[in-house]
């Protein structure tokens, strides 16, 4: 809690500083002055996220990011800062990822990443605890078959901006019976068996976990969803406290955690492909197209 409060204060303070900076005659728009207006700060998300770690890696690997810092907060606070910046046409660099509705809602571009710190394509994979196959074979098979189109995840994420996630998941299952029938084909009723899914707290994961809950519950399982940090998500599946998770992002985002626990869970394969993490800026930042275009604080 203490950390949460101080991040909010910090976000508030930097916003004042950035706003104050814009009042000065600093409107030439070249990337050096843009970097100054940004106070050499990247707006990041939760410190426990893979995206946060990748951004820290970028800060240490790009020489031109000397003197830059990442302001960690939460995905929600990042969105608020982004919205504020866009409504005032101010520069901002955010930690971004796809699937996410921000690319549908705003004109944003990923910055090129010539050093490949953020990797290229990411995928999301399903992991299960050791022994799930024997203990709950029906649930295991459904988890194993589960896969979503990235475009479905994205439009679902947009819908839950103003609609309840549970109802949206039920509608999705109703509208996609053919797909769901393939996942549940030949599976016997779960007879009230519990299934615990460990979930990370970002919307794309809330989407898949909630769809999975509807599907499993309709098959007679009793599914609970536990939101945790990525590290706890891996740990709880590895030690058997959770049955499964649909949340690991690979190969970069959660690669280190995956490697750490790899021997203690089973990977059931990709559930979303075509994902991505990186740094993004509004399209109106015309001179900034690559991470290399951000200017060192020491110039
Ligand atoms: N994300 C969304 C998460 C994984 C899912 C990219 C914000 C992360 O960085 O850990």
From TrEMBL:
Localization per Swiss-Prot or TrEMBL: Cell membrane
Domain ABC-type glycine betaine transport system substrate-binding span(s) in chain numbering: 34-174, 194-297
Coiled coil segments of this chain: none
GO cellular component: ATP-binding cassette (ABC) transporter complex
Keywords annotated in UniProt: Cell membrane, Membrane, Signal, Transport
Segment forming the signal sequence: 1-20
Pfam families named in the record: OpuAC (PF04069)
Domain of life of the native organism: Bacteria
The keyword Transport is assigned to this record: yes
Gene Ontology molecular function, alphabetical: amine transmembrane transporter activity; carnitine transmembrane transporter activity
GO BP term, example: glycine betaine transport
Major place of residence: membrane
PANTHER family in UniProt: GLYCINE BETAINE/PROLINE BETAINE TRANSPORT SYSTEM PERMEASE PROTEIN PROW, GLYCINE BETAINE_PROLINE BETAINE TRANSPORT SYSTEM PERMEASE PROTEIN PROW
Name assigned to this protein: Glycine betaine/proline transport system substrate-binding protein
Organism: Salibacterium qingdaonense
Phylogenetic placement of the source organism: Bacteria, Bacillati, Bacillota, Bacilli, Bacillales
């Amino acid at each position: 809690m203490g950390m949460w409060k101080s991040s909010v204060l910090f976000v508030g303070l930097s916003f004042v500083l950035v706003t104050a900076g814009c009042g000065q005659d600093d409107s030439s728009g070249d990337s050096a002055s843009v970097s100054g207006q940004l106070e050499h700060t990247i707006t990041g998300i939760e410190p426990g996220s893979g995206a946060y770690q990748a951004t820290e890696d970028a800060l240490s690997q790009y020489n031109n990011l000397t003197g830059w810092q990442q302001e960690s907060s939460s995905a929600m606070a990042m969105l608020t800062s982004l919205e504020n910046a866009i409504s005032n046409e101010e520069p901002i660099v955010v930690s971004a990822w796809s699937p996410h509705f921000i690319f549908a809602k705003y004109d944003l571009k990923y910055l090129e990443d010539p050093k490949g710190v953020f990797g290229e394509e990411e995928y999301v994979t399903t992991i299960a605890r050791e022994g799930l196959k024997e203990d709950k074979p029906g649930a295991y098979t459904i988890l194993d078959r589960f896969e979503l189109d990235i475009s479905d995840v994205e439009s679902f994420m947009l819908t839950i901006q103003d609609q309840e996630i549970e109802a949206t998941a039920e509608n999705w299952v109703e509208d996609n019976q053919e797909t769901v029938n393939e996942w549940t084909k030949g599976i016997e009723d779960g007879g009230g068996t519990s299934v615990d899914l460990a979930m990370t707290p970002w919307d794309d994961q809330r989407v898949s976990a909630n769809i999975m809950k509807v599907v499993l519950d309709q098959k007679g399982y009793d599914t609970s969803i536990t939101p945790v940090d990525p590290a706890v998500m891996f740990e709880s599946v590895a030690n058997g406290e959770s049955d499964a998770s649909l949340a690991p992002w690979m190969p970069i985002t959660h690669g280190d955690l995956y490697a750490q626990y790899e021997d203690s869970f089973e990977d059931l394969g990709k559930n979303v492909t075509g994902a991505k993490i990186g740094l993004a800026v509004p399209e109106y930042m015309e001179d900034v197209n690559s991470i290399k275009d951000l200017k060192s604080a020491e110039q």
